[in-house]
Design the sequence.
């Protein structure tokens, strides 16, 4: 059964259109990440689901009930805010009990739920403290606890990790993944951090420029980006896009790039629109630094990034086209070196003039 | 020693300036207290007699010799507390409205409130007097309290303070199923306690020290406030004699203010430093 359903949601602030005809269906107990850059409309969409913003048009359904006419407190959703939004003058226990008291939950039931959530989140020693007496990580747990005790049908997490330092973010990410297994509800997390989205979500909804760009499991988003925006936004470093021309006839598209290199992709040619001009999409792992015998292209090194498990090489092809390649972890390359590259056509993507993506079959 | 000064972030010169400043401030107060403890006759032509004994409490006894003094004290307390409570309630509600609610002409109304800050009370005293006479409110507690409830500064102060409280808290309360009133009462209002205490202190001090409106509105001696009552009881308009009694009145009228200051010292200092908002 569908947990959440958005039908044709539209929102503008004044004359600025923020969301345009957004439709989406979430499965029960699904963890979905809204991923997009700042200003893409992902937080607005979350706030419309929560009831903190009113959509200009469209409907929001949760477990077969239309909830968009309801006030936020009656929608059966709980939200963890980016800055936690804990009530500063209340203890942790009071923070967690506040919503339940408003819902007239019996006192012993409130106590039971708080005790359960505190045990799961390991915040039992903090119950009588106030938010100002806790660290950022502890506040984050309390904010999650406050959502948990409401036993909602849908959890909404608004950039939940963005205020934590790097180490704590990793730890909390693991805890969120564990929490996901425990709760009997769907979860929507808004984030601009693709690593969070890739590691936590069952499906990612990439949002940009007022609309949903692509919906799919993390690896599908990575391997088969629907368009240029998704291709460049997901993956670090961003996919290199090289202007290319369709070179030869055949079952698969063969493209020639500016320095003369011919790349035989595994993208079926008959799927491409009738045009000669495309862009070749290359992730760093599709462009390897090799010995001159295996090379398909030559380039000049502009920057070397040693990341430990691999080395990224930012270089320019003969025609001045920037390209990002991968080298062995113990690479000895330095700026200014002339290098030989091998472009793996089987891992290459093709984008048409409108930005739509085409990929190898079966990947 | 130098380290101590560094900890206090004050140079020896700074300390010296502070000590001199404090002495200058305390000198007239001490002088007033000493004068109040002297026999009036001893001070005629020789006010320096206050520097040595004998001292007496006769002047304070004389204040209570007037049977209405306790009544004036009560009146002042009722008026000051009434105005303080009223201003806190109205300014908090109006502040929340201006800070959080979206209603027609909100900006225009707020501008009107701000204009109220620039209108001196003297400018409206005549119509105010006429209005209260027409309403038969002179010589009554409502008559003394109501004009003080027009507090544009309080509304401005609370609006500014509430605007500084993150909206996420209101939104969290909405998601927690709280009504608008519950959000105001249980979430926002408790967070304004620092601003409320600052506003309370200023309003109380202003109401306690107010002389002009009670002088106009209270024409019956049993409705005088302490300031008006003590002034009326002097019968010594030239202030050439009875200096001890005069100072005893001043000291006596200042005692409640002094107590308020001791209790709310932190809030007053913070408000003076401009950090309460």
Sequence:
């Amino acid at each position: 059964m569908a947990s959440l359903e958005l039908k044709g949601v539209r929102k503008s602030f004044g004359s600025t259109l923020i969301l345009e005809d957004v439709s989406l269906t979430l499965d029960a107990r699904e963890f979905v990440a809204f991923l997009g850059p700042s200003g893409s409309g992902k937080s607005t969409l979350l706030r419309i689901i929560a009831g903190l913003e009113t959509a200009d048009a469209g409907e929001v359904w949760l477990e077969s009930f239309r909830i968009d006419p309801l006030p936020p407190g009656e929608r059966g959703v709980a939200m963890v805010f980016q800055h936690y939004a804990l009530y500063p003058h209340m203890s942790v226990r009071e923070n967690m009990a506040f919503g339940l008291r408003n819902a007239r939950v019996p006192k012993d039931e409130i106590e039971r739920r708080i005790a359960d959530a505190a045990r799961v989140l390991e915040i039992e020693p903090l119950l009588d403290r106030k938010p100002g007496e806790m660290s950022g990580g502890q506040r984050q747990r309390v904010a999650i606890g406050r959502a948990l005790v409401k036993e909602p049908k849908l959890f909404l997490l608004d950039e939940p990790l963005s205020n934590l330092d790097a180490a704590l973010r990793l730890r909390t990410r693991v805890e969120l993944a564990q929490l996901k297994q425990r709760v009997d509800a769907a979860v929507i997390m808004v984030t601009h951090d693709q690593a969070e989205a890739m590691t936590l979500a069952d499906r990612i909804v990439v949002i940009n420029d007022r609309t949903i760009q692509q919906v799919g499991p993390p690896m599908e988003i990575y391997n088969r980006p629907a368009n240029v925006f998704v291709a460049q936004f997901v993956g670090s470093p961003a996919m290199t896009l090289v202007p290319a021309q369709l070179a030869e006839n055949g079952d698969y598209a063969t493209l020639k790039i500016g320095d003369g290199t011919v790349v035989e992709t595994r993208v079926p040619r008959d799927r491409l629109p009738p045009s000669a001009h495309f862009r070749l999409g290359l992730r760093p792992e599709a462009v390897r630094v090799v010995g001159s015998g295996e090379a398909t292209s030559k380039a000049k090194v502009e920057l070397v990034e040693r990341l430990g498990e691999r080395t990224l090489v930012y270089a320019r092809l003969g025609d001045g086209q920037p390209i990002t390649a991968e080298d062995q972890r113990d690479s000895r390359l330095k700026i200014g070196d002339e290098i030989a590259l091998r472009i793996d056509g089987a891992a290459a993507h093709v984008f048409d003039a409108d930005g739509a993506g085409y990929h190898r079959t079966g990947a | 020693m130098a380290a101590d000064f560094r900890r206090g972030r004050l140079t020896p010169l700074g300390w010296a300036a502070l000590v001199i400043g404090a002495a200058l401030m305390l000198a007239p107060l001490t002088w007033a207290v000493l004068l109040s403890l002297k026999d009036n006759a001893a001070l005629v032509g020789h006010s320096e007699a206050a520097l040595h004994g004998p001292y007496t409490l006769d002047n304070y006894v004389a204040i209570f010799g007037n049977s209405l003094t306790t009544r004036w004290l009560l009146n002042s307390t009722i008026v000051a507390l009434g105005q303080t409570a009223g201003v806190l309630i109205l300014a908090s509600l109006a502040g929340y409205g201006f800070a959080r609610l979206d209603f027609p002409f909100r900006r225009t109304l707020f501008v009107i409130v701000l204009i109220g800050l620039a209108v001196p009370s003297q400018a409206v005293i005549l119509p105010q007097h006429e209005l209260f006479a027409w309403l038969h409110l002179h010589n009554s507690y409502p008559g003394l309290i109501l004009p003080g409830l027009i507090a544009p500064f309080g509304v401005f102060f609370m609006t500014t303070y509430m605007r500084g409280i993150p909206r996420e808290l209101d939104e969290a309360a909405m998601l927690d199923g709280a009504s608008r009133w519950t959000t105001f009462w249980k979430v926002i209002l408790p967070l304004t306690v620092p601003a409320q205490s600052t506003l309370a202190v200023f309003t109380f001090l202003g109401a306690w020290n107010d002389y002009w409106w009670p002088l106009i509105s209270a024409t019956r001696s049993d409705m005088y406030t302490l300031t008006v009552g003590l002034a009326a009881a002097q019968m010594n308009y030239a202030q050439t004699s009875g200096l001890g009694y005069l100072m005893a009145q001043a000291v006596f009228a200042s005692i409640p203010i002094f107590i308020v200051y001791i209790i709310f010292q932190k809030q007053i200092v913070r408000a003076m430093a401009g950090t309460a908002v």
About this structure: Residues 240-358 of chain A form a domain with the OB fold (Dihydrolipoamide Acetyltransferase, E2P) fold (CATH 2.40.50.140). Chain A is about 25% helix and 35% strand. The first strand of chain A starts at residue 2 and ends at 13.
